[in-house]
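--- STAGE predict ---
source: upstream dedup step, 1 unique chain passed
mode: sequence only
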Amino acid sequence: MPRVQEHPDHPEGGRKYGAFQTQIYKDGLLNQKLPTVTTDPNKLEEQARKFLGLKSFNYVAGGAGEKATMDANRLAFRQWKTFESPLLIAPIGVQTIFHQDKEIGVAEIAREIGVPYILSTASSSSIEEVAEANGNGTRWFQLYWPQDNEITKSLLRRAKNNGYRVLIVTLDTWALAWRPADLDNAYVPFASGIGDQTGFSDPVFRAKFANKHNNKTPEDDIFLASREWEADVFSGAAHTWEDLELIKAEWDGPIVLKGIQHVDDAKKAVEMGMHGIVVSNHGGRQLDGAIGSLEVLPEIVDAVGDKLTVLFDSGVRTGVDVSKALCLGAKGVLVGRPWVYGLGIAGKLGARDVLRGILAVSDKFSPKHAYIFFTETHFYQDLDQSMGLAGIKTIADCNRSTVRWVQYGGDTISSH
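--- STAGE serialize ---
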C-alpha cells in the first residue's frame, strides 16, 4: 500500500492548495516519500487499473460505444489553448466498487478541503450517512428521477432534511447506454443491489415493496428489489418539461438541470424557472458520437448565461481544463473520473490528493464559492499557479480574451 501524504499545514494568507506542490517536493527531499497518486493526468488511469478489479475499472473508465464522445470531450479541451476554481465533486455512483471508503469517505474529504460534494442517486451509501460524514460541508443532491412521484417526493424530502442545498436533476440517463466495457463482462452493479442504497433506505420504496411482496424487505430479496428500483429510476421513459412543476413544488432551493447540450434546451430551462444548468454529455457514458460538451459551452453561455448559472461537466482532467471552462463562461466545474481513480488507488486519501493536485493549479476556492452561483457575492482568495502564470488574477478575470481556439485535430488523444 503506498504511503499517503498527510494534509499539509499552510500559513495564514498563503496558497491553501498550491502549497501541496511545495509539500510534495519537501517530502521527497527530506523523507524520500513520493506522492500517493501520480501527478501526471495521463498516467492516473493506468495507475488506477493496477488497484481496481477489471469490472470496477471498466465501469468508471468505459464509455458509450467506441468512446467517440469521450474522445470529443478531450479534443475539445485540447483545441482551446490558455491559461480556482469553483470546483465541485461530480456525482459518481456505486463508489463501493472502487474502494470500501465509498461515498462516505469522499464526503469527508470534500468537507476537509472545502469542495462541495454532489451525491448521486446511484449511491452505495444512504442520503443520511453521507450527510453525517460531510458534516458542516457543502453538499448537493443529484436526482435520477423516478417515475413514481411518491418516491420522488420522498427522496427530495430526505435530501432537504439532511442539509443538501442544491438539487441537480439529471436528464440524460433515464435508460443506461450501450457500454461495451460493461457489456463484455455482463456487468451492471445495480442488478445485485450495489448502488441501490438510496432506494433500499427510502421509507416509501420500502413500504411499496413490502405491500407488493408479502411484507418482504429489499434485504430479503435483493435481486427482486434491485429490479424494481432500476425499473423505476432507469425506466426507459423520459420525463417531460411539464413534469418539472412537481420538482419545483417539492424543492424550495436552487434546481439545476444536468445534461444540457443544446441552446434551445438551455432556453427552455430558463422558461421553466430553473436556477442553473450543467452543460454535460455525462462524460461520454451515454450517447456515443455526441458533440464534446466544451464545444457548445460558449454558445449556451451567450444564450442564457445572464439568466441562470451555467456549470460545466465532461472531459475535465486537469486544473487547466477547469480554467478553460471558466474562461468560456462556466461559473463552476464538476470533476469526476480523476478523483475516482485516486479513490481506487488509495481510498479517500487518494481521492483527496487528486483533488488537491487539481486545486493546486486552480487555487482560489472556498466552500462558499459553490453557493455563489445563486448569490450576488464574490470571494477572491489566493492566486493559483496556472491563472497566475497566465496573468489572470481573479475568477472575474477569466474570460474569452485569455483563451484561443486552435483547430488541432491531429492532437494525441489523452486521458479519456
